[in-house]
Specification:
This protein has 186 residues and is of the alpha+beta class. It has a single domain, classed as Alpha-Beta Complex (Cyclic Phosphodiesterase, Chain: A). It has four helices and eight strands, in the order βαβαββαβαβββ. The strands form two sheets. Strands 2-1-7-8 form a four-stranded antiparallel sheet, covered by helices on one side. Helix 1 packs antiparallel against helix 4. The model has no long low-confidence stretch (mean pLDDT 90).
């Protein structure tokens, strides 16, 4: 089992939902989200992890993020990237990976604030080996990119709560465990 921490933006755009279900292989597992803590093994301990998240979140203010840029990652995921609020997302991510989570920070994979839209590799993605070399399905990627650009999708959201998740070992089941509300106004 794994724990992860995400923000769920409220997206009520039918085209967005259709696109994501068409291209995102894990859309049934997990709704659209901004990842703040990627899957970490349950040996970190839920109680300790919740205390850590509480401490970090209690020092944080809600912040706005504007998602409107398309980006392709080195491993052929298409992401909706943050244009404004980028630094705030990164700062919160980095704070969460201090202390008890520092051994789980992937320094070989740069963190980019994003909402996943789809995977465009010819091979299946392996969460247990995220640095595996994959081959781009260029035609599928180019068609999908054009399709998404034609939607002229633009999203503003306020990150005001994070949700702790539990994911099973083979990444086929995911359960929301707890929300952490960001309320600091100082």
């Amino acid at each position: 089992m794994y724990f992860a921490l995400v923000y769920y933006p409220q997206i009520e755009h039918e085209g967005f939902q259709f696109f994501r279900h068409k291209y995102e292989p894990y859309s049934e597992l997990l709704p659209e989200h901004i990842p703040f803590i990627f899957p970490v093994p349950e040996v970190v301990g839920r109680e300790k992890l919740e205390k850590h998240i509480d401490k970090v979140v209690s020092a944080c203010k809600p912040f706005d993020v504007h998602f409107c840029t398309l980006k392709k990652t080195w491993d052929h995921w298409l992401y909706l990237g943050a244009k404004e609020g980028y630094d705030s997302v990164v700062a919160l991510h980095d704070k969460l990976y201090e202390g008890m989570l520092s051994p789980h920070l992937r320094k070989d994979l740069p963190y980019t604030p994003h909402i996943g839209l789809g995977l465009f590799s010819k091979e299946a993605y392996d969460f247990n080996n995220p640095i595996a070399k994959l081959t781009l399905d260029e035609e599928k990627f180019n068609n999908a990119r054009k399709e998404f650009e034609e939607m002229e999708f633009d999203l503003w959201c306020t990150v005001d709560r994070l949700t702790l998740l539990k994911i099973n070992a083979d990444f086929t089941e995911c359960v929301d465990l707890r929300d952490f509300v960001i309320t600091n106004t100082k």
